[in-house]
Amino acid sequence: TSFLAPFPESVMIQLAKGLIAAELGTKDPDLLSGGFTFCGPIVGPINKEDFVRQFSGFDLKSAFPDLDQKYENFRVDPYDPYRVWVDARGSGTWT
């Protein structure tokens, strides 16, 4: 299936960075679509409201005061231009 890109690649990457800056949408739930569903290897699927409530409670900066999340290599999926991939290699000291 072929998709038309919704925005230029640079805009898609800025949108992804904005979502990360808003702590994955927990600080600004309007960034997440109404039909948002989170599904991880252990948790999920959970809907938008449950995701925002549960993930808002995480305080990683208290547990890892020197947390460096190292988000890099942002790129738009060549097969699905609605998807942005990013490498994340976080490090920090647990206190």
DSSP summary, beta strand count: 4
Specify the biggest β-sheet: 2 strands, antiparallel
Per DSSP, the total helix count is: 3
- Overall pLDDT, averaged? 91
Strand arrangement within the widest β-sheet reads 1-2
Key words describing this protein structure:
4 strands, two-stranded antiparallel sheet, 95 residues, alpha+beta, globular, 27% helix
Describe the structure.
With 95 residues, the protein is of the alpha+beta class. The chain is built from 3 helices and 4 strands, in the order αββααββ. It has helices spanning 9-21, 48-56, 60-63; strands at 37-38, 46-47, 71-76, 84-88. The strands form 2 sheets. Strands 1-2 form a two-stranded antiparallel ribbon. Strands 3-4 form a two-stranded antiparallel sheet. A hairpin with a 7-residue loop joins strand 3 (71-76) and strand 4 (84-88). The longest helix has 13 residues, at 9-21. The chain is globular, with a radius of gyration of 15 Å. It starts with 8 loop residues before the first helix and ends in a 7-residue tail after the last strand. The relative contact order is 0.19. The mean pLDDT is 91.
